[in-house]
Structures are given as C-alpha cells and as structure tokens.
Amino acid sequence: MKTPLSEQLGIRYPIIQAGMVWTSGWKLAVSSARVGALGMIGSGSMKPELLREHIRKAKATEVAATIGVNIPLIRGDVEELVKATIEEGIKIIFTSAGNPKVHAKTIKDAGCFLVHVVASVKHALKAEEAGCNAVVAEGFEAGGHNGIDEITTLCLVPQVVDAVKIPVIAAGGIADGRQMLAALALGAQAVQIGTRFAATIESSSHPNYKQAVIDAEDNATVLTLKKVAPVRLKKNAFAFEAISAESHGATKEEEIELLGKRRERHGIFEGDTIQGELEMGQSSGLIKDIISAEEVVRRLVAEYEEARKRINGIQ
Predict the structure, then answer these.
(1) Are 266 and 222 in contact (CB under 8 A)?
(2) In this structure, are residues 220 and 234 in contact, taking their beta carbons and an 8 Å threshold?
(3) N or C: which end of the chain has fewer CB within 10 A?
C-alpha cells in the first residue's frame, strides 16, 4: 500500500485522518498516527492557545512526526493559528477554505509540507502554482463545507490527477477500503477520511453526534446554505429549516442569521441533534458502529486487501 506520498509523509498507510472541527483533537490524531495513518489536529474550532495545547500533548508522544494540523484559511485569526502551528514544530500543514498563496511562503519557509484542500481543477492548479506540495481533491459527498460546483469525488479526482504534477489525495464520501482502492486506481496517492474517524472512541465530538452518524442511511444528508457556503449536514429540524429558507429565496444575510454563530458547536460538540448543525458526509450511510481509530485503520487495510484480491481475480 505504499505510495510516494505515504513514504514522503513517513506513514505506513496512505490514509489521512481529516482535521475536523469539534472532532479532531490530539487524542484522535495520536491514535490514528499510532496505527500508521497521518493524524490531523483540526484547528477550525480552536483558539491559538488551545491549538498549542493540543499540539504539545501530541508532540509528547512517540508519533509526533506523523501529526499534522488543518487550518481553515477563512478564520479571522488565521495568521495566529499558522504562527502557533509553526512555532510548536509541526511540519505538516493542511489548509482549506481560502487561498493558500497568502500564507504559503510563511509555511514553506518554516520547512513545512503544505497541502491544500480543493474542490475543482481550477483551484488545484492555483494551489500548485502557490507552491503547495500536494492537494486534497474533495468531492461534494464530503461532510461540512463543499465547493460550489458540486463535483463528485469519482469525477474530480482523476481530473485533478491529470491536471497537476504534485501528489493528489482523494477525499469526500470515503469510509472503507473498497473506496480507498478505487481512489488509488484513479491516481490518488492517499485518501483523506473524515466522517468514519468522527464516529470513533477518540473523537471529541458528542456521543449524540456519533450516534447520529451510525444511525444515518444513504439519503440522510443534504447540501444546503449555498449562499453562505455549501455545507453537507444530516437532515434534522435545523437542516429542514435551512432547506425551506433556501427554497423560498432567502438572501445570504438571512441564511447567515439562520445559521447563527455556534450552530456547529451545538450539534457536533454539545450534541443537539435537533437544532444543531450535524456536519457529516454521505459516507455516514456506510458507518454502523463506534470503534477506535486503530480499528478504523485496520478495517480499511483489510477491506482494501480483500477488494484488491477480488479485482485481481476478475478474468
């Protein structure tokens, strides 16, 4: 299962545990890294000092070299988050939701491996031009914020692979080893997985949220709030309210007012499954239990090998 990118990152398997808001703290990152994946701390729901605390706890372990940090560039304090990450010695930084060019020089000058999340070929090319070492091509099956073009993972990944010279990581709706094999067949050198890792013992998300993930069926999620930023979340009272507002022509300002300031926290971290924002991907329909991050990786590898043998057996 080795790829040039997995070897470059120093990980045993080409698996990246996504850095998700209210979910990916140091415990999840360390647990993922211990079993051979790249562990990611999600800074999107952290103040700079809290991020430093999580990084220091992760660095105190034997897997510090395979821990990275995800930084949403849309954050108002993004410069402080970048500074904290670099000063604490993290060498792998994933950025999302913004233009990586603004911070690329600072990050690269610090000797960091820079990866940016994109949802189109156009933005993949811009990330490559900005100096990124790799890109995550994320289809709109993914939970949370998505690209406005709504390109699926199966279509996006090979087009990005064909367009750029840097390594491509596939993401969006991936939760098992069969999908990982498919992603590598499309030319990706690794997969980034979010929702499957969100429903783990080490995830910092609320037990109610984890239960909502494993209760989800194939049609459980919806993409809405498109005038603010397209977001995929589980259907609940808030989601249906957002869908209704959108269908009745709500303005961007009205959608922002409906969303409020802490809707993600209420849903993912505090467990409000009625009025909270339960961000999760379409892969939630594949997830049926809450297990350890270690078991997630072990299953991914076993499923990958089983699928590979099945494909090799086709005449």
Answers:
(1) no
(2) yes
(3) C
What is the 3 state secondary structure string of 178-247?
Answer: HHHHHHHHCCCCEEEECHHHHCECCCCCCHHHHHHHHHCCCCCEEEECCCCCCEEEECCHHHHHHHHHHH
Contact 40, 11 (CB under 8 A): no
Spatial neighbors of 1 by CB under 8 A, at least 6 apart, are 13, 14, 301, 304
Instruction: Summarize pLDDT for 219-260 with one digit per residue, the tens.
Output: 999 999 999 889 999 999 999 999 999 999 999 999 999 988
This prediction has a pTM of 0.95
Residue 124, number of CB atoms within 10 A of its CB: 25
CA distance 125 to 146: 18
Asked whether 197 and 24 are in contact (CB, 8 A), the reply is yes
Nearest to 284 by CA among 196, 152, 192, 153: 196
Integer Cα distance of 82 and 233 in angstroms? 28
What's the count of helices (H) and strands (E) in the chain, helices before strands? Answer: 14, 11
For the record, the structure tokens of 98 come out as 């913004």
Report the candidate in 308, 315, 292, 20 with the shortest Cα–Cα distance to residue 143.
20
- Quick one: which of 185, 172, 165 has its CA closest to 96? 172
